[in-house]
Write a structure and sequence with these properties.
With 288 residues, this protein is α/β, with parallel strands linked by helices. The chain is built from eleven helices and five strands, in the order αβααβαββαβαααααα. It starts with a helix and ends with a helix.
Length: 288
């Protein structure tokens, strides 16, 4: 190999190290992605194809959320029970980025739960990193999708979310959707109320019920929402559940951060080394 060829190769490698965007994995095949399908969607080839086209990712790890999974959560929260023909919502989670969580919801199919509602609930579960996309092949409220999102995180990281944390996050989603339905308020306003209440409760580090009731009333007064005493009590119940599991949620958040940091760094190194190896291979096999 000539000195000029070696010099050119070194310059190319330096260019790669400088210009490859941080966080780029060099893969478009879903190596860092988990897709969770509602079982109704997974068992219908047409529905699954619609979802796969929306997510536009190849070779992602696949998992299925069943009616039994959803009922295990919802039965103790909303007393709703679903059958195997009712679980449509699907979620994609990509943990290849170190950025704060980003949530995209297909509003043409998910009719009730909004990105801000998912974000608030995921925050309660200690989930603050990654890229989340949620859709359904047919119109769906989106409540059951949260169970799928959390299952995707478990599959991605290999770390199980404590059941109490899952229950608190799902309780929050169901509480918010119930208030939206009861009051006619916008879903985003309800999510903002919940977030503000949680922040104030956390800053005061309180579990006292009357104190939390006062916080809820003060926050709600800033919004033009007619809310019942029952709804206020449901918010208080939800926030108390969140407070009760906050230490477990923080532990899970640390596990995600550690996973993202380690996998991200390795992904970048692998991408650069693959490029360098392929470059050496091409140069070595070129004409002399």
């Amino acid at each position: 190999m000539s000195r000029n060829s070696i010099a050119a190769m070194i310059l190319l490698v330096i260019a790669v190290l400088v210009f490859v965007p941080f966080g780029w994995s060099g893969q478009a095949d879903g190596a860092n992605v988990v897709v969770t399908y509602g079982e109704t969607t997974y068992n219908n080839a047409e529905y699954k194809n619609i979802v796969d086209n929306y997510f536009s990712v190849n070779n992602a790890k696949e998992t299925v959320i069943t009616a039994g999974d959803v009922n295990q959560i919802s039965s103790g929260i909303s007393n709703r029970n679903y059958n195997s023909n009712q679980i449509f919502s699907c979620a994609m989670v990509d943990l290849s980025s170190k950025n704060n969580i980003r949530i995209d919801v297909d509003s043409s199919k998910i009719t009730l739960v909004t990105p801000s509602m998912y974000k608030s609930a995921l925050d309660s579960a200690g989930i603050s990193r990654g890229y989340v996309k949620i859709t359904s092949p047919v119109a769906a409220t989106g409540e059951s999708a949260l169970a799928g999102v959390m299952k995707s995180y478990e599959e991605s990281t290999g770390n199980v979310i404590p059941q109490e944390v899952k229950d608190a996050a799902n309780n929050e989603i169901y509480t918010e959707t119930e208030i939206v339905e009861n009051t006619g308020a916008s879903a985003d306003d309800v999510a903002k109320i919940m977030t503000e209440v949680k922040e104030q409760v956390a800053s005061q580090n309180t579990t006292d019920r009357q104190t939390i009731i006062n916080i809820v009333n003060n926050v709600v007064n800033n919004y033009n929402i007619n809310i019942t005493e029952n709804d206020i009590n449901n918010i208080v119940d939800s926030v108390q559940k969140t407070q009760a599991v906050k230490d477990q949620a923080i532990q899970y958040e640390n596990q995600i951060v550690n996973f993202v940091n380690s996998s991200e760094g390795q992904s970048i190194v692998d991408s650069i080394m693959n490029f360098i190896n392929s470059l050496f291979g091409r140069v070595g096999s070129s004409g002399k």
